[in-house]
Amino acid sequence: MKRKIKSIILFFGLFGMLLAAKIVLAADFGVEEVGAGLEGTLTSVNPVTIVVRIIQIVLSFLGIIAVSIIVYAGFLWMTSGGSEEKVSKAKNILRNAAIGLTIVIFSWGIATFVLTRLSDATGSLGQGISPGGSSSGFISPGVGTIGACSVENVYPEDGQKDVPRNTSIMITFKESLDLGSVCVNDEGAGCVCDGGSCSKINPEAIRFYKTDLGDACSDMSCPDFNTNITDVLVSATNNNQLLILTPADILGLATGNVSYSIKFTDSVKKINGSSMFSGCSSESVAWSFVVGNKLDLIPPIVAPGGVFPLPDNERDLYQVVTEAVPAAGKITVESVPQVYSSAALESIISTPVGLSAEVILDYHGPIADFKVAVPADSSDKAQLFNDVGELLGVADFDSSGQVVFENYFTFKAVSHPAGSLWQIKIIPEKLADTLTVNGEVFIFSAGAENNNIKVPAPFSPEAQALNIAAKLSRPDLPVKVSRSGRVVNLEAKVAGSGGNNISVVSNNNVSLPVAPLTGGTDREESSEINHKKDRPMNSAIQLNFNEAINPAMVSGSASEVDDYIRVVNADLSSRLSGENCEANIQCRSYKCDGGKCVGDYLGGKFMIGNNYRTVEFISDVKCGVNGCGEEIYCLPASSHLAIELIPANLKTCEKSDDCSAFSPYTICSTTEFGYKTCQDETGKNYPVANLKNLDGIVDAAVNSFDGNRDTYSDGPLDFYDDNYESEINLNKKDKYRWSFYVSDQINLTPPQVVAVSPSQGQDGLSLIEPIKITFNTLMMNSSLKTGGILMESGTSSIMHKLINLRSSNESPLGYWISADNQDIEPKDGEPDITVVNISHSPFAESVTYKAQIGSGVRDIYQNCYKPSSGPGCVATDENPSCCFGNPTNMLSPDGNCQ
Questions:
Q1: Which residues contact 576 (CB under 8 A, 6 or more apart)?
Q2: Do the Cβ atoms of 840 and 726 come closer than 8 Å?
Q3: Which of 271, 633, 731, 761 is packed most tightly, with the most Cβ within 10 A?
Q4: CA 536-538-540 angle, 5° bins
Q5: Residue 651 · residue 858 · CB < 8 Å
Q6: CA distance linking residue 26 with residue 22, whole number of Å
Q7: How far apart are CA 699 and CA 155, in angstroms?
Q8: 52: helix, coil or strand?
Q9: How far is the C-alpha of 321 from the C-alpha of 337, rounded, in Å?
Q10: CA–CA separation, 580 and 575 (whole Å)
């Protein structure tokens, strides 16, 4: 009996040790190939990584040897035939093997712990520091919310090192925030962020803390006094999608690095009241960064050569060979268009005769004849059939004799004996005819409200054509409209081939046949470039700063930020708003209406991108569509434009004691603005602006913009003009201006991808290096975003993908986008192409990643990436996508390559 018990114990002991060995052998030691973003392989070549893998591989082989010895001892015991000597020998081997296996397992654990700590300190393994101080390469699930879900990007980036101690934290969401969920007042009560009395972070919604101390708040509560940083000021951009968090005190230490973590919890709400992270892989966003020991006291500048169009001092000379021809089409009224009419009851016939009934219609389909029958075996039920005898539904009569057939009608018969029948004839609903112009739908109706086109009574084709022409003669539509009898003539407002993309669609080509706009051709000309090339009027204006800037001052509609950044007529003598004018060119806004100048700047919107380093402007004047059917907007034709940037006023002081903390700016001196600010012994200003009253452009450390690039902040004095380097700019500071010329042409050539890295099948890659995509032209950096964009196309919507990175497993992967403009050979000082970087949290090994550039991204001329050609793959209109090197028109239902 004792022998049997010992055998059972021995069996389970062996089983347990074999299980432990299985765990060791199953552990990921990094010896297998791993998938890259473009189907390649990843193998880290960092020296520390190599050491880690060598140690892990050696330990894995020792584990295999230990398990082999255990198996041998078990075999020896089972074949002992009762020999005490063999059993004893097997026991000794088994005991020693178990001890050896234990040593291997503990050695593996110790080595992993030490080397991971080393990697955390050096960053050599590319493992991010997870919020809460976790190590061992653990990546917080909250990082996966960046890019893949509700967060577009953050600053500082996840894992960023040597961050200045006086930095602000910025985060961009893909949907508008409920500002009442992220702010509290000085008493700690929730309120809607207003930049004044309600401007501190809600410590339950936004957790900011030193990584090694961890989050002092729990899911259930957040104590009044804790180690989290709560004295943080909040400001937001006008669309409520971007938050700027500025700590009241500087971060870190003067003697070393300090890691910080920040977490936005599910208490952060969308404008509709739901959690910002509903539907995400994590109910929060969280990331970490390392603050160095230095303050950032260097103001931001516009990077030299970092603007588009480049400064241009002379208009090009053109000699027209062939004038551009506008595209033209027409709508012909052949017969009366259909207006909407709801379904109507025509007749009810009962069997037996005399059974009265009522019908209340709730039907939108084409069936005209129905039957309601009461089964012969049950007078409490009713059956609904169509005209060919198909059963459409069964329902019970209620106490009043009423029965409801969902999506058809409500039927009521007080008397409904078994076997009775009613034949019901209706006049089906008729939908109104529509015209769709460039995605905007116009509906034929008895009235002319909103987008309705009135059908005249009595009807005549000529009167109907007149009503169509009147409704389509809107300044925001890209077509000119005229009428000739029953024909409505359409002509693209902008001559050239772009007009051929304007879509005009009728849903009833019998009553309202449409001849689509065709025949648009571009102007042929010879030109002589003077100074710099004049740019097409569908150009976006782009400014690239040398560092991240505060987006609140530079993003939004032109009317929201005109005090800080604006686009104007470059002619300094142009007329202000309200002054008399005869032509657009006379006005500072390039808009003369009714003999008066309207506004003091061009209308449009400013957008931020490229991790808060790029600002772009597009006008609000529609001038055509790109290859995706998306509206494009044009600058004034044949214009001379200037862009003006205004720095913020500086932080004020009353006496030198107020400056004691700002060494070497310890002297409180009067400036040219009439207020005092802190200066050093040479008269240079402390560069920080007044945070409580920002009135100009600043960087993430609230340093006021340096327009003349002399590394010092002087405040908004005079305009430094980047078009000149002569005495014109002597002592001009610190406003900034440059000007350029715009042609009367439109560029509609779509961008192409010319290189990707890693390429398909490439190996020897780092787990942390960004993916790079090179385009053949400059791109609109504000369009280089994650996710997708929904574009209207007629009465439907189409999702155009942007930039995405997908993983073959469910582990969280955060990713964000940046871009670099590059001047390629022959170099002329003007950037030619854009290289897009997809940065990401560390890849996991043995996982496949797929990178995606979708048609939603646009070049500097607002042309979408379609057809989507890439290296080794030429896409066409018939096959507009490139999937893993092959042109195709077959995508999955969600718009991804299959």
A1: 588, 597, 600
A2: no
A3: 633
A4: 100
A5: no
A6: 6
A7: 12
A8: helix
A9: 45
A10: 8
